Amino acid sequence: PAVAIYSTFMQRAYDQIVHDVCLQNLNVNFFLDRGGLVGEDGATHHGAFDMSYLRHIPNLVVMAPKDEAELARMMVTAFDYDGPCSVRYPRGTGVGAKVSATPEIIAIGRGELMRDGEDALIITIGSRVYPAVEAAMELIEDGLRVAVFNARFVKPLPKEQLLELAGRFDRILLVEENALAGGFCSAVLELFTEQGVMDGKRIKQLGLPDEFVEHGSQKELRQMLGLDKDGIKRTLRTFYG
Questions:
Q1: In angstroms, rounded to a whole number, what is the distance separating the alpha carbons of residues 177 and 144?
Q2: Residue 57 to residues 23, 115, 161, Cα–Cα distance (Å)
Q3: pLDDT digits (tens, 9 = 90+) for 135-183
Q4: Interacting residues of 221 by C-beta distance below 8 A, sequence separation 6+
Q5: Model pTM greater than 0.90?
């Protein structure tokens, strides 16, 4: 079965997700539209919490694609996986990525390094991947070589890749379009703490604050919250004074 629903509306079905699907480890797939900021639909429609309220449920795989092509791959991955899966994606048009007629399955818990670097690392997911890449490319003009890692999975995290990257970088920026409380950034920080790789690191987070986000266009809200390309650049520059 495939359940297609807004992220914010899925909140009303939390108990059913836990008891009627995940407890029994059933092969049900949740496709959550409007994950993140939705703009003019207002505060009730922001998909601000799904990464937080889903990632702690046992048996559930939680994914977020960077573009249309990766969404198609995650859909076939979900249908192939023997168990419950969630895929969240944002409102609006995509970046124009070409979708394969036969999308390939993604290895569960495997991310991708979008670009390498030496000075700092951005770890991000979903709609913030391309703004992070754009920010990294523009920072070359400042003499900064910034790596960008697309985690793809909130759960299970790509642990092996994340730990390898953490061993290479002392300056790390975590970015998500979800509430910072209990979301993707929290998951990465928990991993780093458990594995003892936090010493000597300077880590910053960008995400939705602990408040209800007001009405406004997606562009305006992302700019206000520092989640657009320019906000990511500003935060990265703070690592260097």
A1: 24
A2: 9, 32, 23
A3: 999 999 999 999 999 999 999 999 999 999 999 999 999 999 999 999 9
A4: 37, 39, 213, 214, 227
A5: yes
